[in-house]
Queue: 3 jobs
Job 1
Amino acid sequence: MRVLVVGSGGREHALCWSLAASPLLTKLWCAPGNPGIAQVAERVPIGVLDFPALVAFAQDNEIDLVVPGPEAPLVAGIADAMEAASIPCIGPSLAAAQLEGSKSYTKELCDAAGIPTAHWERFDDAEAAREFVRRRGTPIVVKADGLTAGKGVVVAATEDAALAAIEAVMEARAFGEAGAAVVIEECLTGEEVSLFALCDGETALSLGAAQDHKRVGEGETGANTGGMGAYSPTPSFPQALQEAAMAGIIRPALAEMVRRGTPFRGILYAGLMLTAEGVKLIEFNVRFGDPECQALLPRLMSDLLPALQAAYDGELENFDLRWNDIASIAVVMAARGYPEAPERGSEIRGLDLAAAMPSVQVFHAGTEADSDGHVRASGGRVLNVCATGVDVQAARDAAYAAVRLIDWPEGFCRQDIGWRALR
């Protein structure tokens, strides 16, 4: 098979690394990719939202399957663009991608399908939103309704914080048109986990669970980020509970999407809260999480490529995946100043030493190579240092040993990834 992965981050590096191991693969490209991805796939200098150029490349190179990584092209309709050109693409349609593109769409779907979630209201008028907060009290959660790359959510402990979030999102338009409306919902309490499923429209196949760390600082302190690390499996979310979530959340969502005439095909990511009343949905995403993908794929024994093909073909009903009974962890190394103002351009050394360690993979997330071939930081989250082990402690020890081999004074990472599992 000839495969094109779309994206340039750590998630896409992990996808390319996994797909490159498939005996079914003839040729692998990634658009636009990064220097780490270039070790396992040929880079294509096309942006993730340049659909005409991506379609033309897929046609010219007889691509058998397109695998989009990030949410932006999926929510913008890359699967529809490929389908119109008769190019197989494993991702939801523009209509089905509204599960991530609109918070209120997902909430309405939950209500229709009987999926447990937080009580919520949608507002497109800032004053009405403020009045709701004053009436309901805090803690409360304010979310931009549209797509914000995981950054448009404020868990407000005080009324002032909630009102400031409404002003920033709806009036200052911190997230552009994504903040034209907000969803305000009750603040669920408990432990947060991520459950992933591969879907073919009607059938969902579990891809396992992971737990990530959103805050920039140790002990879950500081600003929210795209994710500072993740690990899998999750002791607080055992297999029986995962199966209950598949039955009570994932499959009812698929059935409701079919009923609406917009069947979901691709990776469905359920952000869940383990509350005292049971498992509740926080949100759906329509792709692998980042960095959860980097923690999950090293545990996969089966070939990922035929699984993706089976999902595209609608043949998951009789398909199965095998997983290694090991633990995996991903530690994010970020540029100084992240998430507010990451410093770019610093050189990163020692990557080969780290990658040479047994059971370690270093996935590039925000890197670029200069004219001399030196790897430099080009984003906020720059590297994912991943390791496997017999348990979370062993995986963590290996990952941090690899981190210490990377010579990058301008970078930093949390030192407590996996702390919940080791508690």
Job 2
Amino acid sequence: MSPGTRPRQTGGPGTPSPAAEPGLTRRALLARGLSLSAAAGGASALIAGCGATAAATGLQSRRQIPGPQNPKTWPIKSSNQPIASGLRAERNASVQVFCPAHLINPQVLGDFARAFRCQVGLTSFATADAALRMLRQRSDFDVVLGLPANVLAALMPPDLLRPLNHSYLPNLAGVWPKLADPYYDVHGRYTVPYTVYSTGIAWRRDQVSGNPYATANGWDFPWQAAYAGRVGILDDYREAIVLGLIYTGVTDLNTADPRLLDDATRALEKLARLTRVRAVSTVSADLAAGRVWIQQARSGQAAAAVNRLPRGVPAEAVGYWFPPDGVGPVGSDLGAVPRGGQNPVLAHLFLNFLLNHDTAVINIRRTGYMQPLNWLTPDRLVRYGALPQSLISAAILPTFLDHGLKELELLTPSDTLWLSAWHTLQRHL
């Protein structure tokens, strides 16, 4: 039997492990300008230093992490109120958008600028931690897009976001109900949903014999020595270690059990010995160019790879596997209005513009990342050219939010264990 066929620890989709450690979150430490060091040895080497604090304050601290079983309603302070209703859009404005470049179609920026007679500037970021640092240093962004839901808590105590006035956001009526009123921001007081994605296995059908759907457990597919040098994992410490966890049968993606993290690391070290696996940050480009043939990937990265294929290579060359029952890693990115922006009305209108059906189709055609709109069924994604029929498996269904496995924010000691596992693995990449 494959190592990944029998769950060893479930904890429920998106539920923090009972072993989760207490303390400040890693991103809170980053916000204070502190550094986080990770040990070079296995994760279990760090557990002794974390246990004493856990006994004292673990339960109280874990309750601070938003999750499906712990929905969070963020307060609206008297010193940080939503803008009034019925205001006119700012004139002669330059709307400053802060977003990963691969998550926005430049055509959308141009269309908004023409529709609202303004200019639109784009500043990009590569990682969530880099975005958090920039948001603390620069206060003139009007819109931020593409932040994962599990970093929202790091933006709230310093009041970096402006509460939303939903009267400017009528298109929210067409959003999947669970993301219009999400657990990480009950009533959507500060955020709107932007993209949704799953994390599975992408592969080049024209280069690889067989496919994950034909195996007993699709998560095993990368562990093939025949494709040494052509296998990749995501260059992200959470996502990479998650692959090792699921391969060993663990479905708690927020575990703080050092033994489970060590097992996951050893599974990935085995992958490295078999395939010379490498951590890939340019997934879509590498898949399209054939630099990788089997790749841990987000659904949007697999879909975007089709747009980059060389001329003459059909869309069918790229495949994407995710468990058909939806029990796999799923996530969402959000949009928000930073408090220091100078154009809050246009910022609201921009978020609403992104939730328009036509705008979403244009966006997805370029980015590959699906938007959680009721109207955007998988059939319509194919019909309007936002997704090829051969990649219908990259479409996200609302039910995935019920069954999917979610990465939540980790408290600092737990995060240190994950980083330790990642640093151990990097020696083999």
Job 3
Amino acid sequence: MKPRHQRAAVVLGVLAAVGVAVALVLNAFNSNLVFFYTPTQVAAKEAPLARTFRVGGLVQPGSVTREGVMVRFVVTDSAQNVPVRYEGVLPDLFKEGKGVVAQGQLGSDGVFTAREVLAKHDENYMPPEAAEALQRAGEMKARMSGTLQQSGRP
């Protein structure tokens, strides 16, 4: 085999290996991709039936029922409702009327079977470090505006 043909074979082999690696990475990425849907989108049949996705909204007050470790509740976005079934321990922040995101699959019966439930904290919550930084920034801004007013600047 001529050196020219050997180089061509090596280049083709490297390109084939890179192509296979890219195909494997894209396949893994696609299979791990999880979309988020609202209860209105689930009711409109926009969510896939045989694929894992997330549904989020508020836990409808009065909808939580417990049977041992089996918990049933309803996720609502104030327009539509999605019944959810979950087997396991719920997060401490899980409460009626609070935000929740559940990951799982929608059954043909319209019940969402969750494998994971994430309770959302209050939207007003802020980590202590961030609150402290904002407070310091506010104090600094107040000092700066006081200094500017004393110097006669607007």
